[in-house]
Amino acid sequence: MVQRILAVNNGSVSFIAARLSSAVCGALLVLMLFPRPGLAEDWLQWGGPNGDFTVNAQGLAETWPAEGPSQLWKRPLGDGYSSILYKGGQLFTMYRAGDSGVVVSLNARTGGTNWEHRYSRKIWPDMSRQFGHGPNATPLIVGDKIVGVGVDGHVRCLDLASGKLLWEHDLPAEFGRRKRQEEYGYSASPLQYKNTVIVQVGGDKTGVIALR
User: Fold this and answer.
1) Which pTM does this prediction carry?
2) Fewer Cβ atoms within 10 A, N terminus or C terminus of the chain?
């Protein structure tokens, strides 16, 4: 499993990820970099504005001081591999808390919680515990909505401002699930194409779908 702590420094947003085993070791995983507020583009999907992990920004520092950037705040989050999204001064991500999955919206300046949406997860008997039980995918912001795919293949669309559930799909129930020798759950992040959301299903008869 990977326990994550979200840390916001002056000029960067990062997850501190500690892999838990018989001995605990720490690693610093920088998932996204933002310049000062007002200079950064919104980061609405896996890979950022252009899908290539780059932003169009000016005035970035060439180097940091030896002691690193000053830390503004940090807070613990649960397990998972979802990276961070950013829109209009708010941060969004997914993580696991006990037996529940969580989609959360945070204030980028303070780290305070705007809203949380908790949902139950179904862990298949053949799902490996080697890398934990997700979530594995990064959600997607489309206009005033956010779409996330849980490790069990449930797609949920939430209102971006309130976290209210708008609609959902159970991909394994609707499209089947192709069993693999090693099963780690759903990991593909959804992507936007025009007025649709593209989701990799990996079903026994369906590979990719587009949702309105």
Assistant:
1) 0.79
2) C
Q: How confident is the model at residue 203 (pLDDT cuts 50, 70, 90)?
A: confident
**What pLDDT score was predicted for residue 148?**
96
In contact, 150 and 186? CB cutoff 8 Å: yes
Residue 28 and residue 13 in contact, taking contact as beta carbons nearer than 8 Å: no
Cis peptide preceding 135, ω within 30 of 0: yes
Contact 77, 6 (CB under 8 A): yes
Buried b (16+ CB within 10 A) or exposed e, 116-139: ebebebeeeeebeeeebbbbbbbb
The answer, yes or no, to whether residue 1 has pLDDT greater than 50, is no
The partner residues of 178 in beta bridges, in order of sequence, read none
- Helix/strand/coil (H, E, C) string of 165-181? EEEEEEHHHHHCCCCCC
Q: What CA–CA distance (Å, rounded) separates 89 from 106? A: 9
* Residue type present at position 204: D
